[in-house]
Structure formats: C-alpha cells, structure tokens
Specification:
Layout: H1 9-18, H2 30-40, E1 42-44, H3 56-61, H4 76-91, E2 95-98, E3 104-107, H5 109-119, H6 126-129, H7 132-144, E4 146-148, H8 149-156, H9 161-173, E5 177-183, E6 189-194, H10 195-198, H11 200-204, H12 209-224, E7 226-227, H13 231-236, H14 240-253, E8 256-260, E9 263-266
Antiparallel strand pairs: 1-3, 2-3, 4-6, 5-6, 7-9, 8-9
Amino acid sequence: MKPRPELPPDVEEFRDVHWCREATRQVDSAFDAERFIEHAGFAACLHDSRRPGPSLYVAVCGRRDAVMPRNVQKDPEASRAWVLKDEVMQRGKVYYAKLARGRAMFVAPRLIAHFHAIWGIRRSEEAARLSPDARAVVRVLRHEWEMATSDLREASGVVDRKACGAAIDELQAAMIVVPGEAVYVPKFTYIWTLAIGRFPDELRRRVPREVALREIARAFLAGAGTTVRGELARVAGLSRSDAGLGNRALVAEGVATMSATGVYHLVPRP
C-alpha cells in the first residue's frame, strides 16, 4: 500500500469534522451511522486510516489515526462497526453492497442514481453483460424475492461456493442485488434481495453520466475540502479520467479550484 500524501493541518481538521474523525462526533448508533452516510454521500464500511475517504469504522473510533487490529474479533471498535453495519443494512435506509472493485460501501439515497449511472446494469443489458452464473442467480431472486446464500446456490444450480460467491459479487457490483440481512443462528449467512425492491425510485431514475461524475466528485470534495491526485478515483472506485471529469466540472461550476494537476480545493461559501 502506497503511503498517503501529507495534507496541511487545516485540511485534516476539515476532514475530522466532516468525516466524524473526532470524539465529539463519534458514531455510536444506527441513526448516527445513517446521518454520517447521508452527510458524506458515500463511505467505506471497514476501511481504516491507511485508506483515504470517509469510513464507518473510523467514524465509530472517532479519531483520524484509527487502524484495524489483526485480531478484529476481540477489538471492541471493530465489533461495534460490524454490528452497526448489520443494523444499517437491515434498516435499508441507505444503500449497502460490494460495489466498484469489490469494496463494501454505503451510498446515501441522494447518490444512488448517480452511482447506478456509472456502474449499474439495466435489465435490457443483462444478457450481454452478465455471466451465466449471475443470470441464474438473479433469475431465482426475481422469483423468490429474497433468499439465504445456501438456498440460493441450490435453487440457481450454481452449487459451487466460489462460483456462487463470484456471481453474487458480480450482481452487487452491477447494483442489482444487495444483502438485506445478516443471520448468525444456526449459522452465519446473508439474506439476499433485489436492490430495486429497496430503492425503486432511485434505481429507476435516469442520470446522465457527466452529471453522475460531477455529483460524486461534489460529495467527496464537500467532505474532503481538498482532494489530491488519484484520491477520488481510489475512494469512489472511478477511473482517474472519470474522476478528473467530475472534478473539472466542479471547477467549471465555480465551486472548486485547481492548484495543480489532480489537486482540487473546495471554494468556501460566503
């Protein structure tokens, strides 16, 4: 992992406030977590301070230098973040799934349509863009609506655990399927459901790609204050060219300035 570039103290303090990286803004409940995600626009689930961007785990810790321990099962902060993730996922008020590059991410409802414009697959495109295993899995879910992982393997005919897991990940990345609940007794499993069942209005809304890039960039810069080269691409899972298009759209709008290649600053409001 490449070391993060040093940021000025005022930028770090700005992020402390907006990404809940201080004790006074610490996230301690599902309601706190949902409010944090809505404010940030999108956030990683369990990333620590070694990765840039807003993160539920760092917000639960309430400090900017939070690092995930090796033995997460015995760490109270990691356990708390995991429990909150399950609660937020089950409440279904914000989007949660493995999205770009297989990263577990929360997305505020106001940005779901924008993320879908970049990574989503429309039903008319599924035959051309989804693998046979993914199509078999989603076919079952459209009939049953929700199903545990083991039952989904059996019903879809994708009985190999690895192949079924890859198919579910593919459907999550395409914003077609989301985990609806985590069940721990008698054994751990996720209950999978259709994303459009939880967020029908957001996922049916059409957003132009350039608008989606601009609004994703806006949400990140609003919490970051300053974004350095490659940072938005890394946090949101965008290509660097797409991240640049989004940031430059903010410059054209007058809400950001560019001081160097890939370095953008939020213009303070009057």
